[in-house]
Amino acid sequence: MATVTGLPNPSLALGASRANVPGESKPLPGAEVPPRLKISKLNFFYGAKQALFEVDLNIATNRVTALIGPSGCGKSTFLRTLNRMQETIRHTRMEGQILLDDQDVLQMDVVSLRRRVGMVFQRPNPFPKSIFENVAYGLRVNGWKGNLREAVEHSLNRAALWDEVKDSLHKSAYALSGGQQQRLCIARALAVDPEVLLLDEPCSALDPVTTAKIEELLFHLKESCTIAIVTHNMQQAARTSDFTAFMLDGKLIEFNPTSQLFTTPADPRTEAYITGRFG
Amino acid sequence: MSVRTIWRKSVNVVMLSLTGACAALTMGFLFFILGYLVYHGGKDLSWNFFTKLPTPVGETGGGMANAIVGSAKLLFLASLIGVPIGFLGGVYLAEFGGRTFSFLVRYTTDLLNGVPSIVIGIFAYTVIVLPMHQFSTLAGGFALGVMMIPIAVRSTEEFLHAVPTSLREAAMALGASKWKTVATVVVPAAIRGIITGIMLDLARVAGETAPLLFTAFGNRFWSPGWLQPTASLPVVIYTYAISPYDDWHRQAWAAGLVLLGLVLFANIGARLILSRKTMLQRS
């Protein structure tokens, strides 16, 4: 894709008015990969309090993009603006532009947007229904016509859960372990076949073994899906992602290929964060 | 032991016995009432009590079949009015309401709950009995239905509030509209609690007498349809209890026992339903 002005540029200190120096802007990190989501000048407000400041970011197709940063830096808020979950909170306001395949997300019908941009939350949140009904839910509410059973099996397979639950599809989802529940939530999100999958700290409530399973799952999923993951765990970002964005106080500080960001961070604040000096 | 220690210990003993005695007394009242009812009304409870109409004064036998059916009809009508309004109002408060209007609704609901039942009876009398020129099951059911609304609203609201937000988010993130989320995820997750609340609500209005005195009025015979005056257990208890006949007194006791039995049954049933509410606890 073409170079875009106003994107995070490692050679520029944050706060410099990037838009005024278009000549200096370099190709976006990962410019060789077409972006699925293009976010520009995104501001977000909780009442009078601004939580995101002029965030510009591209989320590359069929890659994993990780968002890291200390608590309260706005990474979850940012993720939740991408499928407009954030507007369900009262007294919030969003400015800027988010393009999904060149369609303006803010103008789209929110139901079809959320069908295309799925989400997995921090804590496993299966519905108090059977395993089957959990996965079928998204298809049912979207009035999908087709073989429900096949679709459920396919999604559970994609989430690497089918073998563990195939004999207990009609048991309550609450009978599963935490890790299984989280994979069920991933299967549930995958059932409507989203183009983008947003994961909001999906492993923070899970043990290391289960976390490893989910990370492996992400690796396979990116063949068919574009993934954005918010994580507290820098090792997880380093292991799973192709690109990493570092955020601080609602601002995007640095956005680069993961290998580059973790080995040769361009911004001193990124370096301070990844070496554990704060956050 | 110093005087201080003795003083401290005796205060302790006194307070413990005082609070314990009051707690025991609370339980005592229920068991006393229950025992008294069983003692006086138990022997008049027979198959006839449930199947026969009342007999004229002086004749033995006879029952309260018409009052039992009348109460059932009144409660049915009350549910038709109170349950949908209360339930949907509660859903609105918990899921859709804005701040100001919700506050208003909640406050008004609490005030309605505090309106004396006799006043609600007068209201039903004015709105239904006067224009129709007769006492009726309809008027009584309406009065009880209005009485059901506030508790149904608040209990529905509370059980919906107990459903974690994460479930709502999960549904909406899958493309469910707000209404679909509520209908397919939130309400099913809380449905046991909601049903329990409504059962307790029904049990409460089942014993109301005042609003029925000049709406459903009373009837010595069967009340066909919905537009005739009808007998009901609480009103029959009232009229029989203030009558001068021993025979009627005994029957009033028996009717009281039946009514209390029904209320206890609803309460225990509700507890059982609630205690099985394990699906949600883990999240």
Structure description:
The complex is a heterodimer of chains A (279) and B (283). Chain A is of the alpha/beta class. In chain A, 32% of the residues lie in helices and 24% in strands. Chain A has a six-stranded mixed β-sheet, with helices on both faces. In chain A, strands 2-1-4-5 form a four-stranded antiparallel β-sheet, with helices on one face. In chain A, strand 1 and strand 2 form a beta hairpin. The longest helix of chain A has 14 residues, at 178-191. The two termini of chain A are 34 Å apart. By secondary structure, chain B is mainly α. Chain B has two domains: 3-44; 48-275, MetI-like (MetI-like fold), CATH 1.10.3720.10. In chain B, helix 3 (65-96) packs antiparallel against helix 8 (178-206). The N and C termini of chain B lie far apart (53 Å). In chain B, 39% of the residues are buried. The model of chain B is unreliable at 278-283 (pLDDT under 50).
List the helices and strands and how they pair.
The complex is a heterodimer of chains A (279) and B (283).
Chain A lengths: L34 E12 L2 E12 L3 E5 L6 H8 L9 E9 L2 E2 L5 H7 E4 L10 H11 L6 H11 L3 H4 L12 H14 L4 E5 L7 H14 L4 E5 L3 H7 L2 E6 L2 E7 H6 L4 H7 L5
Parallel strand pairs in A: 3-8, 3-9, 6-7, 7-8
Antiparallel strand pairs in A: 1-2, 1-4, 4-5, 9-10
Helix pairs in contact in A: 3-4, 3-6, 4-6
Chain B lengths: L2 H39 L5 H5 L13 H32 L2 H16 L2 H16 L4 H25 L3 H9 L4 H29 L3 H4 L19 H9 L4 H30 L8
